[in-house]
């Protein structure tokens, strides 16, 4: 029976116990030749693609519904909140980012589509982290009467998918925030770029 | 004399030496009641606003130039590359995010403007980090003949600002990537949302 996830304790994590992430002490010589140190977090899971993760901006087109995208809601322990994000996931050791995009979109939402573009390798938070990613755009063409597909989640994965008309995305994210959910910065920026194009140009 | 920054070594950072970031071992009880552990990185610098950082999407309006934004280029040791980002920075201990937005925009670009919107608190990479931020939109109205203002950088800060017409932003980011620079994921998403609105809807 699903119940609300709950944090029971937060402790300092000794470096030699960490399995998924690690801390780097980066010694570097700056633009004046001065020796300096920078601290960064890093994922230990990066595979041979060199890309940690992918996210997917989906466009669902349907004969008589407005163009829509899919966002997912899932609890994220680091911020102790249900987060609102694009479908996303880590790239497996031997996968390409494009393959990971198709797989993750299917697992988290049930949908399959065509990857119509793939961003360059972009960096998630380069002031504190080595993490990088690629953003795939996937087009899904539905026909009249197509049923909503089943998600393909692992046991113990609790991910809610929501299909949102693109026209309503920005307001929907504001609404989720008011409900106490936390919107992912990348999804927010995408929605704000879209909103900006419609309202400020 | 500015010279190319260079990494001299990358070592494991023991938790008790870290000054800026820390590792958390989060014990939590999942949706089935099972006890689980999540590893996260966290900034140690969060002040009383509860928000780690701000970024600023600027809109420069001018009587006879196209609407433009400002991006900054700076070397980031965690990814050993010059990164292309919105102006951004940490919120000081006693500052509000809005105040930090005005200050950071001025320091990094020289421009001052009016904050016309401020995003909710959004989360930068919630699968691995507690980091959060707000995105401010700042409007700068220029008059014919206004000079480009001076940046107000600290000694040892090397930040290049670039004013880019919004119509050219997406292609410009692709060009920077081809030159070996690394585009920040949030800036990329904003530009892709804008591009999407113009090309896919």
UniProtKB/TrEMBL annotation, chains A, B:
GO terms for molecular function: ADP-ribose diphosphatase activity. Residues 5-187 form the Nudix hydrolase domain. GO terms for biological process: nucleoside phosphate metabolic process; ribose phosphate metabolic process. Keywords: Hydrolase. The keyword Hydrolase applies. GO terms for cellular component: nucleus. SUPFAM superfamilies: Nudix (SSF55811). It comes from the Eukaryota. Pfam families: NUDIX. This is Nudix hydrolase domain-containing protein. The lineage of its organism: Eukaryota, Fungi, Dikarya, Ascomycota, Pezizomycotina.
């Amino acid at each position: 029976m699903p119940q609300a996830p709950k944090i029971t304790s937060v402790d300092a994590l000794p470096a030699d116990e960490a399995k998924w992430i690690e801390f780097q002490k980066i010694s570097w010589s700056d633009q004046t030749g001065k020796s300096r140190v920078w601290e960064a977090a890093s994922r230990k899971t990066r595979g041979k693609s060199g890309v940690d993760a992918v996210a997917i901006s989906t466009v669902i087109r349907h004969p008589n519904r407005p163009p829509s995208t899919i966002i997912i809601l899932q609890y994220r322990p680091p911020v102790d909140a249900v987060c609102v994000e694009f479908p996303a996931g880590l790239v497996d050791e031997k996968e390409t980012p494009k393959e990971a995009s198709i797989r993750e979109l299917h697992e988290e939402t049930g949908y399959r589509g065509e990857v119509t573009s793939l961003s360059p390798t972009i960096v998630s938070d380069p002031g504190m982290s080595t993490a990088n990613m690629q953003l795939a755009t996937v087009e899904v063409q539905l026909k009249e009467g197509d049923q909503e597909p089943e998600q393909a989640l692992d046991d113990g994965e609790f991910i809610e998918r929501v299909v949102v008309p693109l026209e309503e995305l920005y307001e929907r994210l504001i609404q989720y925030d008011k409900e106490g959910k936390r919107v992912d910065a990348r999804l927010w920026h995408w929605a704000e770029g879209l909103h900006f194009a419609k309202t400020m140009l």
